[in-house]
Design brief:
Largest sheet: 7 strands, antiparallel
Mean pLDDT: 90
CATH architecture of the largest domain: 4-Layer Sandwich
CATH superfamily of the largest domain: Aminohydrolase, N-terminal nucleophile (Ntn) domain
Radius of gyration: 22 Å
Distance between the termini: 14 Å
Low-confidence stretches: 1-9, 327-333
Number of domains: 2
Helix content: 25-40%
Length: about 475
């Protein structure tokens, strides 16, 4: 699993990837670029677009943000066609390099085929070893390329048949958009771990996207979520739904609601914003504290902090101000800059903080180093007390399904009690929402221990899909 060396982001869970596709719109590449812009939060290292112009495929990939890669009119002019897919990437497998940028493209006997993937395959390395022994030559280090080679080595057939056959051998989490001549294909894995939604623009063009917020930017109406284990094939015949995989219990990633998805998205019928606000409500019920002010760590902590303030009767205010203009390679990562990294992103609102007992709301604790610096920042701004409340349970286990988490031993919650974590961070108190409380915040009566309603492996250590490559 790839780990970022960015000094400003080293103590947070990293984004996954975003996928977006349009079928049946002249100049669809412009809509795909806009859709990727709306999904930028899911991946900020590389992006790419592949278009189908009546069987002639055009591609463009680049490292960096979407707006930087697709800001040249000449680039957009090249991406002709009415069927287009795109991808914005954060590396969870494979290093950051242009050869790993997606969508991946290959020429088959049936014609061109492009594939973009959000998620992580848990048996990709084992399959890769087998494929290399059979003579396959890999050009990238991504797990996604395994699917391309499985298709190439499969039985003769069209793109849909070959893709389905390849996925029969795959284990792990995936939401895919794929492009072949005249076809736009969307797939979710049988557990539905990663999101994928279907929309339509003015009764015409169809849109596939990782999140519903990306539909809004292109004026598409949300139709429905792609179901777990479903393959949708969009063509001149309309939308065809296939169910080629054995059924499995739905295990949608609960961390999408806590942190990854944009708050204005709807995922699996739930508002991300309302879910986060309700998490704050339950957190206040479970872990109240006498204080003067509720302060979020912006931006992901804001909805939960609002819920906590409403439930506790405490005032809410922006006691920490975030800078939105810190680049990922702002300056060289010297030891001094690493130490100041949090201050480059966040600064205490001193007049608001001084003399107050603060409830600080954050979405998660990974290594804990950022929490240490935030608590110290508030104390230096004059806070009398700092009580840290976390809108997720302790993150004590790694994710193998498309989230870039540190090795398990690097997670603060793996080997430390809550009291030990509190002492390390330097807060006056520390509390996490309980796992059962998280489920209640999501509208469930509680966590079904026999068959959990979500994937919560990063909290519970219970993996719905065996991480074969990790040796677990």
């Amino acid at each position: 699993m790839f780990l970022s060396t960015n000094p400003f982001d080293e103590d947070s869970l990293k984004e996954e990837c975003g996928v977006f596709g349009v079928w049946g719109q002249d100049g669809a590449a412009a809509s795909v670029a806009l859709g990727l812009h709306a999904l930028q939060h899911r991946g900020q290292e590389a992006a790419g677009i592949v278009s189908d112009e009546n069987g002639t495929f055009h591609t463009h990939h680049g490292l960096g943000h979407v707006g930087e890669i697709f800001d040249d009119p000449a680039v957009m002019e090249k991406l002709r066609g009415a069927a287009v897919i795109g991808h914005t990437r954060y590396a969870t497998t494979g290093e950051t390099s242009l050869r790993n940028a997606q969508p991946l493209y290959a020429d088959f006997e049936f014609g061109g085929f492009a594939l973009a993937h959000n998620g992580n395959l848990t048996n990709a390395q084992a399959l890769r070893n087998q494929l290399v022994k059979r003579g396959c030559l890999f050009r990238s280090t991504t797990d996604t390329e395994t699917i391309i080679h499985l298709m190439a080595m499969g039985r003769p057939g069209g793109p849909v048949e070959r893709l389905i056959e390849a996925l029969q051998a795959i284990k792990g989490a995936y939401s895919l958009v794929a492009l072949s001549e005249g076809l736009l294909i969307g797939v979710r894995d049988p557990y539905g771990i990663r999101p994928l939604v279907l929309g339509r623009i003015d009764g015409g063009a169809y849109v596939l996207a990782s999140e519903s917020c990306a539909l809004d930017i292109v004026g598409a109406t949300f139709l429905r979520d792609i179901e777990p284990g479903e393959v949708v094939v969009i063509s001149k015949q309309g939308v065809q739904s296939l169910r080629p995989f054995a059924s499995a219990p739905s295990r949608f990633c609960v961390f999408e609601y806590i942190y990854f998805a944009r708050p204005d998205s709807l995922l699996d019928g739930r508002s991300v914003y309302e879910s986060r606000r309700k998490i704050g409500t339950v957190l206040a019920e479970e872990s109240p504290v006498e204080a003067d002010l509720v302060v979020p760590v912006p931006d992901s902590g804001v909805p939960s902090a609002i819920g906590y303030a409403e439930a506790s009767g405490l005032p809410f205010d922006l006691g920490i101000i975030r800078s939105h203009y810190v680049g990922r390679t702002f300056i060289q990562p010297t030891d001094q800059i690493r130490h100041l990294g949090v201050k480059l992103k966040h600064n205490a609102n001193r007049p608001l903080i001084a003399g107050k007992r603060i409830v600080l709301i954050d979405d998660s604790i990974v290594r804990g180093t950022t929490s240490v610096k935030l608590v110290d920042m508030l104390r230096k701004a004059g806070a009398r007390e700092v009580h840290l409340r976390i809108s997720s349970p302790p993150t004590a286990h790694g994710c193998f399904y498309g989230v870039d988490t540190p090795r398990r031993e690097k997670l603060l919650a793996h080997d430390n009690t809550v009291a030990e974590m509190c002492a390390f961070i330097g807060a006056d108190s520390l509390a996490f929402i309980s796992l059962d409380g998280l489920y209640r915040a999501m509208g469930e009566t509680g966590r079904n221990a026999a068959q959990p309603q979500f994937c919560d492996a990063c909290f519970s250590g219970e993996y719905p899909i065996r991480p074969t490559d990790a040796g677990l």
